[in-house]
């Protein structure tokens, strides 16, 4: 099978309306291997919509998304395979143990030896000892780690994250950053949608600001978050 | 935005004209039915309601089919105007359905001696009403316009496919549980003059539908244009 | 090359869809048996409906055998509606549905998986209600049992097929618990007509050849609405 050399994720002309309201107005996006893109913007700017369109959870009214060169569409399940999602919801079932939750995901992805793979994933995020517990009994930080374990189970090349730091205290946020930093690397890309820019700053290699469904800014991440914030506020209050 | 608003208002105006013609036609049908159509021998004056009931029923069924077909087109083409048209048709259709349901028992009581019968046709009219109401209730319970359009399209298509099953199952039910055979008021061989009145009435119903649905569609377009203007401001 | 594809097990699309449907159904059943909430509620509800039927009739005027088809099928129908909400409510809790939609799972597999799980629940409710009916109403239905099972399966597939589709929508509306019955009940009538009539005939020991028309109706209904549900389900879950 020929090795795919192009961008891991590419989107062109993404447009999405809510009724007559244009939420995304012709957005383009390219993610290369090793990229970690932080998408920031005020509430209602279209960040979550963008992420859902990139994940294939929402169909754009115009434009297309390609994952590893393959067109993303509801009718092509395998095109979604390289994608992983971490949202501020855990995507877990309260009535199943962490292990059962992960084994279910493993089976959905057709992975070999679901049990071993799931246990290993839980160990990686430090939840090996809690494998038989329900998500109900865990702290928010632990649930988020379990959600990440679930998202990374099938080793996605593109990890999409929607407000992953929501509700996490400083130690938990630190752990999360460590986990994500470990995941980043060759052959992988990351998109973090957040309004807590400080949390995502160190992880990001690129910053993009979404204002009114369009990019107001898109550049490599350099320097200090403190230096960036005034420019960010200027863009989003315009 | 003001262009689409102006276009929408034109649509409403056109609809108003057509509806006015339809209403005039309706008055004409009343005159035709009461004055120029012979009295039916066995049923007398009560039979006249037939000229309203049957065309209303045909129209309700036809309009429901339109809602189903337009809904299927919407799921294929994703054009919001198709959804607006389906909604407009359903609101007009439910009115015809209500007319059909109320004129039915009014006619039945003096003729059959009973308000209602569970024969295939009457049962179908009742179901059609329920399907219309279900469609409209679902629409009022969903806020996201795209989701509302998708969901109601699914229900409309399902409902359309259900119609023949209701007819078939009630027919089988009646075959198994024979009920007293009652006089079928719309005899298969309808004298020419009565058939003519019936068909004229049906044509008038169609004109009325066309006018009302155009008006309602126009109103839908206005709302659609306004929502965009407010949110895009 | 991304590591995930080397670990994936590849199969023919149809087998894969069936496998995934089984995985999803198994997850639903596992989750329900841990908490048993929906199941117990549906069973208790069914039992209560039977109790109401008992007190709502005059035993001297209506024999239990005459009442059986209505009592059984009304109970099954309402028990099914109570059980149907479970399938997609559980997916809303922590946006678990997103996980299902993101995974390389065809929408058809999701629909079929939920359909199978719902059938299992409705089947359990029916399997418990029937002996309860025999108990409460003191009527011997054993002679008709094989036929009753066939009828129950055929009729249940029909309204569960429609109910699975509609509950996926209803769960996202206002007044979800009211919207599902309003949408679903018209669709339950043809299978109910078939099932109640067949039940009455079975209890009266009528010959089998009289029943083919109704059996064909049930089978046709099942076929049409399972196919239609499979075709329309993506429009419900894909935004």
N- to C-terminal separation of chain A? 49 Å
Name the shape of chain C in a single word.
Answer: globular
Largest sheet of chain C: none
Radius of gyration from the alpha-carbon trace of chain A, in angstroms: 18 Å
Per DSSP, the total helix count of chain C is 9
Mean pLDDT of chain C: 89
Number of strands of chain C: 0
Instruction: Estimate the helix proportion of chain C, in percent.
Output: over 70%
Element order of chain C: H for helix, E for strand: HHHHHHHHH
Characteristics:
heterotrimer, A: 238 residues, alpha/beta, six-stranded mixed beta sheet, 7 helices, 32% helix, C: 239 residues, mainly alpha, disordered N terminus
What would your notes on this structure say?
The complex is a heterotrimer of chains A (238), B (233) and C (239). Chain A is an alpha/beta fold. Chain A contains seven helices and ten strands. The relative contact order of chain A is 0.19. By secondary structure, chain B is mainly alpha-helical. Chain B is built from six helices and no strands. In chain B, helix 2 packs parallel to helix 6 (192-232). The longest helix of chain B has 41 residues, at 192-232. The model of chain B has no long low-confidence stretch (mean pLDDT 85). Chain C has 239 residues and is mainly α. Chains in contact: A-B, A-C, B-C. At the A-C interface, strand 6 and helix 2 of A face helix 1, helix 2 and helix 5 of C.
Topology:
The complex is a heterotrimer of chains A (238), B (233) and C (239).
Chain A: E1 9-18, E2 21-31, E3 36-40, H1 47-54, E4 62-67, E5 70-71, E6 83-86, H2 98-108, H3 114-124, H4 140-152, E7 158-162, H5 170-183, E8 189-193, H6 197-201, E9 206-211, E10 214-220, H7 225-237
Helix pairs in contact in A: 2-3, 3-4
Chain B: H1 2-35, H2 50-77, H3 80-112, H4 120-140, H5 145-176, H6 192-232
Chain C: H1 4-7, H2 13-35, H3 37-56, H4 64-92, H5 96-102, H6 107-137, H7 145-170, H8 176-203, H9 212-237
Helix pairs in contact in C: 2-6, 3-4, 3-6, 4-6, 4-7, 4-8, 6-7, 6-9, 7-8, 7-9, 8-9
Short description:
The complex is a heterotrimer of chains A (238), B (233) and C (239). Chain A is an alpha/beta fold and 238 residues long. Chain A has seven helices and ten strands.
């Amino acid at each position: 099978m020929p090795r795919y050399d192009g961008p891991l994720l590419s989107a062109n002309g993404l447009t999405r309306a809510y009724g007559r309201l244009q939420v995304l107005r012709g957005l383009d996006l390219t993610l290369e291997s090793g990229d970690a893109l932080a998408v920031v913007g005020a509430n209602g700017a279209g960040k979550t919509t963008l992420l859902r369109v990139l994940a294939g959870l929402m169909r754009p009214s115009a434009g297309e998304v390609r994952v590893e060169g393959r067109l993303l569409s509801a009718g092509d399940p395998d095109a979604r395979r390289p994608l992983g999602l971490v949202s501020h919801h855990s995507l877990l079932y309260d009535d199943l143990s962490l292990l059962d939750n992960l084994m279910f995901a493993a089976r959905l992805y057709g992975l070999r030896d679901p049990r071993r793979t799931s246990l290993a994933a839980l160990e990686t995020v430090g939840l090996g000892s809690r494998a038989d517990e329900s998500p109900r009994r865990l702290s928010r930080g632990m649930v988020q780690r379990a959600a990440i374990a679930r998202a990374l189970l099938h080793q996605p090349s593109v990890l999409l994250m929607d407000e992953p730091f929501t509700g996490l205290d400083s130690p938990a946020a630190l752990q999360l950053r460590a986990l994500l930093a470990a995941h980043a690397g060759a052959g992988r890309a990351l998109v973090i949608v957040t309004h807590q820019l400080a949390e995502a700053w160190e992880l990001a290699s690129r910053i993009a600001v979404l204002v009114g469904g369009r990019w107001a800014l898109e550049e490599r991440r350099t320097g200090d978050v403190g230096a960036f914030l005034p420019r960010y506020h200027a863009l989003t209050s315009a | 935005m003001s262009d689409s608003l102006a276009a929408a208002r034109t649509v409403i105006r056109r609809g108003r004209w057509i509806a006015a013609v339809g209403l005039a036609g309706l008055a004409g049908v009343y005159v035709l039915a009461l004055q120029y159509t012979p009295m039916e021998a066995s049923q007398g004056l009560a039979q006249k309601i037939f000229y309203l009931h049957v065309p209303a029923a045909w129209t309700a069924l036809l309009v429901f089919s339109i809602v189903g077909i337009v809904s299927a087109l919407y799921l294929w083409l994703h054009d919001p105007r198709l959804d607006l048209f389906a909604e407009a048709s359903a609101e007009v259709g439910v009115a015809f359905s209500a007319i059909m349901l109320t004129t039915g028992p009014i006619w039945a009581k003096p003729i059959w001696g009973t308000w209602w019968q569970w024969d295939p046709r009457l049962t179908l009219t009742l179901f059609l009403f329920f399907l219309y109401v279900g469609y409209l209730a679902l629409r009022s319970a969903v806020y996201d316009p795209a989701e509302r359009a998708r969901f109601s399209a699914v229900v409309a298509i399902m409902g359309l496919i259900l119609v023949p099953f209701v007819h078939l199952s009630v027919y089988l039910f009646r075959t198994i549980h024979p009920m007293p055979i009652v006089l079928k008021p719309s005899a298969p061989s309808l004298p020419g003059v009565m058939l003519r009145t019936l068909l004229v009435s049906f044509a008038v119903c169609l004109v009325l539908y066309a006018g009302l649905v155009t008006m309602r569609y126009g109103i839908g377009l206005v709302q659609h244009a306004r929502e965009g203007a407010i949110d895009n401001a | 090359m991304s590591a995930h594809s080397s670990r994936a097990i590849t199969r023919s699309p149809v087998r894969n869809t069936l496998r995934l449907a089984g995985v999803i159904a198994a997850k639903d059943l596992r989750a329900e048996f841990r908490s048993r909430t929906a199941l117990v509620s549906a069973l208790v509800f069914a039992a209560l409906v039977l109790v109401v039927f008992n007190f709502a009739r005059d035993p001297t005027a209506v024999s239990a055998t005459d009442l059986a088809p209505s009592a059984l099928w009304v109970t099954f129908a309402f028990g099914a509606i109570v059980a149907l909400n479970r399938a997609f409510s559980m997916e809303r809790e922590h946006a678990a549905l997103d996980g299902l939609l993101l995974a390389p799972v065809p929408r058809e597999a999701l629909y079929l998986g939920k359909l199978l799980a719902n059938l299992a629940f409705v089947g359990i409710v029916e399997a418990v209600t029937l002996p309860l009916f025999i108990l409460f109403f003191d009527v011997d239905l054993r002679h008709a049992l094989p036929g009753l099972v066939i009828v129950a399966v055929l009729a249940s597939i029909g309204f569960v097929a429609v109910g699975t589709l509609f509950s996926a929508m209803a769960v996202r509306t206002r007044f979800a618990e009211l919207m599902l019955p309003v949408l679903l009940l018209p669709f339950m009538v043809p299978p109910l007509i078939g099932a109640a009539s067949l039940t009455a005939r079975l209890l009266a020991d009528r010959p089998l050849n009289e029943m083919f028309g109704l059996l064909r109706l049930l089978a046709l209904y099942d076929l049409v609405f399972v196919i239609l549900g499979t075709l329309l389900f993506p429009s419900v879950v894909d935004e």
